[in-house]
Amino acid sequence: MELIKNLPEVFEQFAEQRKHSFLAVRELKEKGTPIVGVFCTYLPQEMVLAAGAVPVGLCSMSDETIGEAERVLPRNLCPLIKSSYGFAATDKCPFFYFSDLIIGETTCDGKKKMYEYLGKIKPVFVMELPNSQSESGMKLWKEEMLHLKEVLEEKLEVEIAEEKIREAIRIKNEERAALKELSYLMSANPAPMLGQDMFKVLYGASYKFDKEQSIAELRAVTARIKQEYSEGKMLTKRPRILVTGSPMGGAAEKVIRAIEANGAVVVCFESCSGMKAIDTNVDESNPDVYEAMAEKYLSIGCSCMSPNSNRFELLGRLIDEFKVDAVVDMVLQACHTYNVETYGVKQFVNQEKEIPYMSLETDYSQSDLGQLNTRMAAFIEML
Ligand code: BJ8
User: Fold this and answer.
1) Confidence class of residue 2 from pLDDT cuts 50, 70 and 90?
2) Nearest CA to ligand 1 atom 12
3) pLDDT band at 10 (very low <50, low <70, confident <90, very high)
4) Whole-model pTM above 0.90?
5) How many angstroms is it from 101 CA to the middle of ligand 1?
6) Which residue CA neighbors atom 15 of ligand 1 most closely?
7) Taking the mean position of all CA atoms in its chain, how far away is CA 87?
8) Atom of ligand 1 lying closest to residue 59 CA
9) DSSP string of 337-357, one letter each residue
């Protein structure tokens, strides 16, 4: 990445990354590189990389194909599931179109049932994710690592050497470390930049297929922001918000914009689009690579786990480290697990961390923009 570029330009470049990678994925395909479509943070991307394939995120976050999806799926289903299915069924998602194999996990009920229909369009393998982080859950998840290896070897007609897995673990660990270093720049008070710009980089980076290059670019952006901060380029002091809940991205970014348009700044994302995915690494010193991957991935604090104490542990730590003034819990419509957890999160945030909390349910439409703004304005004014 050229360092002469201005930061706003760099942010825009990352924001456009998903679109650019439509072309990149076609080029990869033409060169014979297998493409594996993925949906969830629990998926050990290391295994896909070790198979010589490229993992691409298939979660769609726009309402463009929801109408189409509702011909098959119920209306009162999470928009992420409907949107992802809609793009796949209408052939409007190039990532889906080029995927040789799709991997899902038994996370929430809506997603795992949707995979049954996706399987009629493309080869789909659903990993059996336990719904608790118990000893038996860990045993099952480790077995699923080996199961995934077999499926990848069979479907992609490759052999996955352990050395390749170790190499992929090293690269993914480095990528997570680079993303984490960048994210932690927002722990400075005043914040160096708006959360919506930070989000563009975090989200865009997940669509960079050349991981070594992406790591170098992330480090260059981090160095540039640090340098500008030391020269006094930063925001004025604003209320600092942590956003938690369902995955952010696409149409749901309206929540970040509403928070920041009303004078606050989003300093941290405790979700799969942020810290949930990058907080911990795979233990490279563990001689058993499958166990090491199972441990890292099973520890993710998603609301499909019961109980979900890891979410509260991470949330509490991030509230302190990012000097957070209030928490906004964004729940996608009909996401029952995150919705049920809002009560526990509210109690934790209000009583243990003693800061304000607000939850909101939204979808990928623009119809609630006015209401969203009014609620945010009132909430932020109170801080
Ligand atoms: S690890 S958050 S990526 S499951 S929002 S589809 S949960 S009804 S996306 Fe997720 Fe993996 Fe968990 Fe992360 Fe269902 Fe809720 Fe919709 Fe969701």
Assistant:
1) very low
2) 302
3) confident
4) yes
5) 20
6) 335
7) 19
8) 9
9) HHHHHHHHHHHIIIIIS---E
Question: Ligand 1: which residue has its CA nearest to atom 17?
Answer: 246
DSSP 210-238: -HHHHHHHHHHHHHHHHHHHHTT--PPP-
Residues near ligand 1 (Cβ within 6 A):
40-42, 78, 80-81, 107-108, 110-111, 246-247, 272, 300, 302, 304, 332, 335, 337-338
Q: Across the strands, what pairs with 290? A: none
Instruction: Name the amino acid, one letter, at 19.
Output: K
pLDDT for residue 368 is more than 80: yes
CB atoms within 10 A of CB 190: 12
Structure tokens that stand for 52 in this block: 């010589």
Query: CB-based contacts of 98: which residues, under 8 Å, 6+ apart?
Result: 25, 26, 28, 29, 35, 56
Q: What does the block give as tokens for 296?
A: 């890292």
> Which residue minimizes the CA distance to atom 11 of ligand 1?
40
Determine the pLDDT at residue 301: 98
CA of 247 relative to ligand 1 center, distance in Å: 7
In this structure, the residue with its CA closest to atom 9 of ligand 1 is 247
DSSP E strands in 94-202: the ranges are 101-105, 124-127
- In degrees rounded to 5, what are phi and psi of residue 167? -65, -40
- Residue 74: CB atoms within 10 Å: 11
> Which one has a higher pLDDT value, 280 or 250?
280
pLDDT at residue 92, as a whole number: 87
- For residue 265, the one-letter residue type is V
DSSP H helical segments within 90-134, as ranges?
94-98, 109-118
Query: pLDDT per residue over 13-62, tens digit each?
Result: 888 888 888 889 999 999 999 999 999 999 999 999 999 999 999 988 88
**Mean pLDDT computed over every residue of the chain:** 95
